[in-house]
Write a structure and sequence with these properties.
The protein is an alpha/beta fold. It has a single domain, classed as Alpha-Beta Complex (Spore Coat Polysaccharide Biosynthesis Protein SpsA, Chain A), CATH 3.90.550.10. It has six helices and nine strands. A seven-stranded mixed β-sheet has the order 5-4-1-6-8-7-9, sandwiched between helices. A two-stranded antiparallel sheet has the order 2-3. α1 packs across α3 and α2 packs across α4. The two termini are about 30 Å apart.
């Protein structure tokens, strides 16, 4: 059941260099990674926002908010998502974590009592409050793009999550392993 007031932000703007094609459109168990992540966010959040690069021309079954940046880094998507969000905390989910569950997203949101909550492997998926935005905006503007490093400037809680649920798809081989 979706949490009232909780906003989910799906990050689809990655360069997919190692994957070789847009990861958002890769298929797993009959749906694209983007569709899968959108569905999981919908089960946990009342508001969903997909953030990426409109110029990429991805054919997605939901609207895309342009991150307004020439930079390809998760921090750009998180900043755009926080700016667009109507509720908080804001769950930032990369498109390439297809095993995430709504229950884990809810745990991240509940743990976000300071600026952010991350899993033990961090920095994404994560939950952010609007209080994190000034630090993230400054770092983006300065070109200091590592989201993991930005966490050092924030009040962050850590949530232990089953490592299998955090499986990340960076290559076609990673996707093939998940299909088994």
């Amino acid at each position: 059941m979706a949490d009232r007031g909780l906003t989910g932000v799906l990050l689809v703007g990655g360069a997919s260099r190692r994957f070789g094609s847009p990861k958002a459109l890769a298929r797993l168990d009959g749906e694209t990674l983007a569709e899968r992540a959108w569905r999981v966010l919908g089960a946990a959040c009342t508001e969903r926002i997909a953030v990426g690069k409109i110029d990429d021309g991805l054919e997605l079954p939901f609207p895309l908010v342009d991150d307004g940046s020439d930079i390809r880094a998760p921090i750009a998507g998180v900043v755009a998502g926080l700016r667009a969000a109507g509720g908080e905390p804001v769950l930032a989910v990369p498109v390439d974590c297809p095993r995430l569950t709504p229950a884990t997203l809810s745990r991240l949101a509940a743990a976000c009592r300071g600026d952010a909550a991350v899993t033990q492997t961090g920095p994404l998926p994560a939950a952010f409050r609007q209080t994190a935005l000034p630090v993230l905006e400054r770092r983006l503007q300065e070109g200091v793009l590592a989201l993991r490093d930005a966490l050092a400037e924030l009040d962050v809680s850590v949530v232990d999550v089953d490592p299998d649920e955090l499986a990340n798809v960076n290559t076609p081989g990673d996707l093939a392993l998940l299909e088994r």
